[in-house]
Amino acid sequence: MARSPTTTDAFTAIAEPRRRELLGALAGDRYARSGGRTGGPERDVSWLIEELGWPQPQVSKHLGVLRKVGLVTVVRKGKRRMYSLNGEQLRPVYDWVKTYERFWDHQLQRIKERAERMQRESKPAHRPSTPT
Amino acid sequence: MARSPTTTDAFTAIAEPRRRELLGALAGDRYARSGGRTGGPERDVSWLIEELGWPQPQVSKHLGVLRKVGLVTVVRKGKRRMYSLNGEQLRPVYDWVKTYERFWDHQLQRIKERAERMQRESKPAHRPSTPT
DNA sequence: TTGACATATGCCTGTATAGGAATATATTCC
DNA sequence: GGAATATATTCCTATACAGGCATATGTCAA
């Protein structure tokens, strides 16, 4: 068997650095947030080509992969195609990696647990309870 | 050019579902947390083989990839090799995906912002301030 | 219709798998 | 040393890119 196709899911799609870069551009990294419905602002392919400085086919192909896994959505607008980020598909990645949080940041974990405990018990402040 | 090698970084390594599964086993999913230094408990390859039900070479090979990107660490113990999860390498993935949080859960984002604001200003409760 | 512009798709090549089977290496015990 | 155990590595094959280049498709304007 070969490697899973890049169009399998978000995990495989974002494995490619260029595609993460592309998503970053679509997210509006270092640009003013402007419009966009669910995700980032709408950008046409020409804008992305200019922004990323890649050959046009490369941009289109990467967009194709991202489209297939639902990480971006398109709407036609005349001869332009407006792409926007669909963050919803990144959620599985987030959820997965989040379950490992305790393996890299024990400090953070403790803080969160305390916060959650406080919220559950609705007790106002830090009473030195059973330490972890 | 071909696809980036799976041993490039955590992003490429976790693109493979089996490797995520393997990490899950090492993390101690549905098992009692027992020992382990920085990451999860130490498990030898035989345990993983039994747990996952995969052919031994497959387990070893996937472990090899995970080892190369630092997602797992090994120590020899007699003829056994004890593997443990090294969550630190998952952090870049977490950090990256986290920057897109606002694109999938606006509700959560607002809650967090409010919480952070409250904590910064150390003001006790919801005073209807400048809405976002 | 014709041409210009915007974007997608096809073709080609080198590279890199993932899995299966067989084998090599390392370590312990007798 | 030799057998048994634990794990890694090699070889093989089918698959799948990612990028470069050429070309097709779709849309608007004159």
Q: Would you give an account of this structure?
A:
Two copies of one chain form a homodimer. By secondary structure, chain A is mostly helical. The first copy, chain A, folds into two domains: 10-87, Arc Repressor Mutant, subunit A (Orthogonal Bundle); 100-132. In chain A, 45% of the residues lie in helices and 11% in strands. The first copy, chain A, is built from six helices and three strands, in the order ααβααββαα. Chain A has helices at 10-13, 17-27, 45-52, 56-68, 91-98, 106-121; strands spanning 43-44, 72-77, 80-85. In chain A, strands 1-3-2 form a three-stranded antiparallel sheet. Chain A is globular and about 55 Å long. The A-B interface holds A 3-4, 6, 11-12, 14-17, 20, 23, 27, 38-40, 85-88, 90-91, 93-94, 96-105 and B 3-4, 6, 11-12, 14-17, 20, 23, 27, 38-40, 85-88, 90-91, 93-94, 96-105.
Topology:
Two copies of one chain form a homodimer.
Chain A lengths: L9 H4 L3 H11 L15 E2 H8 L3 H13 L3 E6 L2 E6 L5 H8 L7 H16 L11
Antiparallel strand pairs in A: 1-3, 2-3
Chain A binds a DNA duplex (30 and 30 nucleotides) through helix 4.
